Amino acid sequence: SFEDWQADAAVKAAVAQLHLDSEPQPHWGEPLFSAGAAATLVYFAHPVRERDGDLGIVVATTTVQDLSTFIGSIDTPGTIGTFILYGRDKVLAHPRLRVASELMTADAPLPSLAEIGDPALAAIWAPGWEERRIADLDIPAHGSRDDSDSYVYLYDELTTARDTPWVIGGYFRAEDLGREWRRLNVVTGIAAALLVLSLGGAVLIARLLAGPATQIADTARAISALQLDRIEPLAGSRIRELDDAEHSLNAMVAALRSFVRYLPSDLVHYVLRHPERDIGKPQLRSMTILFTDISGFTTLAENLEPAAVGALLNAHFADLEACIRGTGGTIDKYLGDGLLAFWGAPEPLADHQRRAVEAALAMAEATSRRNAEVALPLRLRIGIAAGEILVGDLGAPTRMNYTVIGDSVNLAQRLLEIGHSAAPAHETVIVTTAECIAAIEPPPRTRPLGQHVIRGRAGAVELVEVLPPTTLP
Q1: 3-class state of residue 385 by DSSP
Q2: Rounded to whole angstroms, how far apart are CA atoms 266 and 316?
Q3: Which of 206, 344, 384, 460 suits a disulfide with 287, CB 3.0-4.6 Å?
Q4: What percentage of the chain has pLDDT greater than the value 70?
């Protein structure tokens, strides 16, 4: 099982210090006393470089009590005791430290050899120990004695300790070795090696944490940028907490993918880029409105299966969406076989008229290209009008739409209707006002449609048909 130490003040202070190191390496850190846990902690820190270059650090932590319990469980014949020393004079793990001890405090996180209450261990570095080294073993060993007995110590140093070495080993009574001396020393050496391997398991844990943690961070960044198409499902982890986090993120991404299908993605991206702006507040903007529909679609749909009608419309709308997004526009809503789009909000656009007309010409080209591939060609009609538009969140408190209303919205819809009769033979008909075209430089190719009285407007309006390159005047 795992305990969560990230809120512990001592651990937080140690991690903060790690971040001050410009090029940290994987290492065992300095023991630290946690007042909250009333215990001395040891930790293994593993740096993680994220894709953007930011430094993260994964920290695996254990207590001196748990470490002491582990080494105390190693049962090797003839062994009196096992130990881990911090340097030469401090005890990091010992069977007597399996429970909380007053010997460990904030001022002195580890007890000294003299304080641990083990005379045999306290004698390990007795004067002259260098002269009593045993040279024919594969690991360091030497003999020593206290006031009443002689001992043999076998040990090794942990190389991943950062500043102060860890000395890991065990000790025997010399008289117990007898003719089994070499065999017992080998067994003890194996026990010490296993202990080192068990500590190395913390390194493995850190690496198991580092990979999923980096993936979670990358996924969170992609979610914040709404780059949902770039996110691969997280595979899960053998660590329960990380596995829960990854499953939650996978569920969030799936929900967001479903959610954004019903929202203008450009609008959502704008909100994410500018959270400080209240774009929902209704306001007047200089904008261009575009309506589309398909001429004769009702008759066309009567001769098709419902699934075929849906597939036809979805392919058509995909073409139109690409043209609108490619010119910086926003789709407000789909209206049966047509749609309403606008330019100039939420991002103000000085050339919104030009962008809308460019989108309409791109729609004409896309429709012509698709008609060449299908048995039932579509005839597209488009109405475009520019002016002062009220845009913002409109609706009831429980459900609102970011939408547009105003005279120019109504005018664009009327121009769409005129397009049905203006040039019945044309594959695509784009109707707009001469005033809108006058704002575009250089102006597109047009055909005059004369003065028209528009229902709901005072006076006549000069209209033109914008001609796609393939349309003859």
Answers
A1: strand
A2: 20
A3: 344
A4: 74
**Could you tell me the two tokens for 20?**
């001050």
Mean pLDDT of the chain: 81
- Confidence band, pLDDT 50/70/90 cuts, at residue 341: very high
CB–CB of 86/108 below 8 Å?
Answer: no
Within 278-406, where are the H helices? Answer: 297-302, 306-326, 352-371
Sheet holding 166-173, edge to edge: 90-93, 79-86, 166-173, 150-158, 141-145
Q: Domains, the chain, ranges and CATH?
A: 1-262 (no CATH), 279-466 (3.30.70.1230)
Burial class (CB in 10 A: 0-12, 13-18, 19+), 71: buried
Model pLDDT for residues 262-311, shown as the tens digit of each residue? 566 666 666 666 565 666 788 999 999 999 999 999 888 888 899 999 99
DSSP output for 151-183: EEEEEEEETTBSSSPEEEEEEEEHHHHGGGHHH
CA 344 to CA 324: how far, in whole Å? Answer: 12
Per-residue model confidence (pLDDT) at position 213: 66
